[in-house]
Amino acid sequence: MNQYIQSTLKKYLHTNEGQLRRVPNHVLALAFFLSINVLLQGIADIALKLISYSSILPPLPWRTDFLFLTAVSVLMGYRSFTGMLHQKFDVTRNSIELGILVEIGLVVGDILFIHNHIVEMPHVLPMRLPFIVLTNLNILILLYNYQTLNLRKWW
Q: How many CA atoms lie within 13 A of 48 on its CB side?
């Protein structure tokens, strides 16, 4: 499995060039997965909202705060993804800490949304649960990369 990850990273991200050659492959693989995961969740969130305007799903309440957190998360994932494609990997303490904060906000927002609407809309639990699980996975990846890259230093 490790060889597959290394060869895939080398083939698509050219990890032997630029800043990427200094970053451990497992950190790059997790950051790449996180970027794709965030982008796909953003697309899925938009699709669910659009489908809720049709007769396929019941209408869902508008969540402005959640929309902005999702937009920040998707932007960070997109920037990380395009940066890796250009052999640049900028992992600063601030960006990982902001990512953790945004992802926690998304999980809390989903939990509160489910709590507030589960009685009148029981379909929100199975609809939002995959997002909660995947976003918690993003938090774990960010925490792991934070620890692995030794970004916890204060000075």
A: 18
List the structure tokens of 92: 């600063």
What are the extents of the domains in the chain? Answer: 2-148
What percentage of the chain has pLDDT greater than the value 90? Answer: 37
This prediction has a pTM of 0.75
- Which amino acid would we find at residue 52? S
- Cβ–Cβ < 8 Å for 42, 73: yes
**Dist CA 9 CA 88 (whole Å):** 13
Q: Which amino acid is at 59?
A: P
Whole-number Å distance between alpha carbons of 155 and 153: 6
pLDDT digits 0-9 by tens, 76-97: 888 888 888 887 777 677 788 8
Between 15 and 155, whose confidence is greater? 15
CA distances from 142 to 33, 34, 35, 125, 150 (A): 11, 8, 11, 25, 12
The CA distance from 85 to 47, in Å, is: 26
C-alpha–C-alpha distance, residues 31 and 20, integer Å: 12
